[in-house]
Amino acid sequence: MAIADISSSAAKSVATAINAEGGTAIALSMDVRVERDVNDGMATAIARFGAVDILVSNAGIQIVHAVESFTLEEWQRVLSVHLDGAFLTTKAWLAHRKTAGGGGTILYMGSVHSKEASALKAPYVTAKHGLMGLAKVVAKEGATRGIRVNVICPGFVRTPLVDEQIPKQAVALGITEQAVVSNVMLGETLDGEFTTLEDVAEVAVWLASFPSNALTGQSIVVSHGWHMQ
Ligand SMILES: NC(=O)c1ccc[n+]([C@@H]2O[C@H](COP(=O)([O-])OP(=O)(O)OC[C@H]3O[C@@H](n4cnc5c(N)ncnc54)[C@H](O)[C@@H]3O)[C@@H](O)[C@H]2O)c1
Predict the structure, then answer these.
(1) Distances from the Cα of 176 to the Cαs of 159, 162, 169, 172, 193, in angstroms?
(2) The whole model's pTM is what?
(3) Of 2, 32, 107, 215, whose CB count within 10 A is highest?
């Protein structure tokens, strides 16, 4: 398994944890917005493992403001990490799968925000909706080569991306941090609970290991019922 991240230390710590559990992982330093980084990282992973059968396009950032307070640079930064990153990793991986004889699966990390909107998150919601379109196109183009493409759409998971936005949303909305958690983030769930990393990992393993090409071009929402489709 190759773990790619713009933060080398983050990639190394995940790879080290996987290796400590008996897996085999390498860490790659990669800015998913930079084509050369992506291509070099893909080449390194292929050289190490012989093939990359599963691509998980997961890198993401969040910036919270009202639309009119976003600078163009912030807007483009969020879109770029999510959409340029998904495009470039997909392009590099598809070229590899062509020479490998086809087959394989892509998982895009969407969000409930691929389906719903929240105030203060214009570029993030736009990008996560955009991933749905990319997934459907790549599912259509890849089908004859046995390539499946699906999107995982989690509700709120307690990661640094979420922890950072709690105080910012509290200020922007004029409410307490506890109210951000219980009303804004979890208010629409059925049980007031965060989705967990383990929940998302279960869905990823299930989607990646699905035994036929029947399951492609789909999105699976894992959000404690926040969004029902
Ligand atoms: N946490 C949630 O509630 C939640 C919900 C739905 C979807 N997601 C999505 O899950 C994915 C992972 O988010 P997370 O919550 O684990 O956040 P996180 O901040 O913990 O992890 C995001 C990772 O992306 C990396 N990254 C950022 N910019 C990058 C770049 N240009 N190139 C390569 N790596 C880059 C960061 O270094 C970080 O390790 C994101 O796509 C996010 O939108 C998160």
Answers:
(1) 19, 15, 9, 10, 18
(2) 0.98
(3) 32
